[in-house]
Amino acid sequence: MSGGTQVDNAIRFYEAKSRDYDGTWHSNFTKQFISRLDIQKGQRILDLACGTGLLTFLEAEKVGLSGSVVGIDVTPGMLAVATRKQEQDAEKYSNVTFHNGDILHLEETMALQGKTFDVITVASALVLFPDPNAAIEHWSKYLKPGGVLAVDATHPRNLVSGMVLERVARRLDLPMPYNRSWSRSEASLHTVLESAGLEVEKVETIHNQAGYGKRYYDVERWDDFFVENVIVKDVANTFANNEIRRKAQAVYKEEWEKLAIDGKVEEVDAVFLGIARKSADGSRYVPETVSSEAIFKGGCRCGRVQFTSSQRPSDITLCHCRACQQLSGSAYLAFVQIPRFALKYIGSSTLKTMKLSEVAERTFCSSCGTPITMEYLYDADRINITMGSIDTYSMSCRIPKVKKHIFLREKAPWVESPDDSTERWGTAEFAHLVATKN
Length: 438
Known about the structure:
GO terms for molecular function: carbon-sulfur lyase activity; metal ion binding; methyltransferase activity. By secondary structure, the chain is of the alpha/beta class.
């Protein structure tokens, strides 16, 4: 079987969970997952990373005995539980077959050779793989023309202690058995699905995945979670070396404290679910291209500063730092990010640069005062544009949504932050890069 390291880590992690897996939140989540799918009688379904068959058996009931469901998983213990459940109701689930296999190398599973499916489902597994785009492209080969892929990805605040651990590993250049860093919003999953050549039908947020909604941890509890994740749950032995563990402990504390707002770290019980379709002729879906070179334009209030962008913007980050409050005369500044090369000024006679610190430069119109951009000196490839200076009517792409609040420790006391399930940072995820420049 290929992909030894990732596969071995998955087996070690899930083998120990096999016996009690059905008693966890996964049982309820698979019911939420399938309720979003339009499964028809007689369809052929491929359930990848099927585990103990929680979703597989629900799908089997939907397609009926005229349809079929194939479950693939790499963990023997999970498949053993699934097989026992099938044997207990053999007639009802005679349309189900299970196979041991690596879902990143489906060509190695003999039972799948030459077969395609109406629906492919992947529940609670996408973030286990280093390259989600490559994984989805691989799975799409097993979709019929017009077939549907359904997959979920974690909210950035879901299981927050694990998210912090991943950030620690990235900073220390250590391997991790999962990759959550790309999954930031519904738009992130939309982009991955579309980049893999599928046409996205919808991406939605499923709240209460595990049933607790939201919860808050005292900032002082960082060490409890460090011990739990690094000592108890380190199945890949990433932090086995004492020197690495010592460095990781300091970085874990720093990353945990970045999230703290009023002494609490928020955890959000949510995931993003995406449903995408293979084109009817089986070809790769290519999004419509923008006819004009400029995807959006904008400028200052008086019109002396004008710009265009040749690239789509990111979703919106609301910066609550004191500098942004003072420069905007309000509670925060809203920014979107684009590649630096995409920004072109078509009028800049009054554009001035302002440097309030050693870490960033801002620009504004010296005539009317409109703030235009902010560029961090550690990241010369990207630039942040104030959302208020963009002419939204000019956008030939979707209008960005708010995805993140940063520097909430400096939030204006007269403002209540909306309960919008976006990312929230007491400082910012890049704060350690800024600190090294001060």
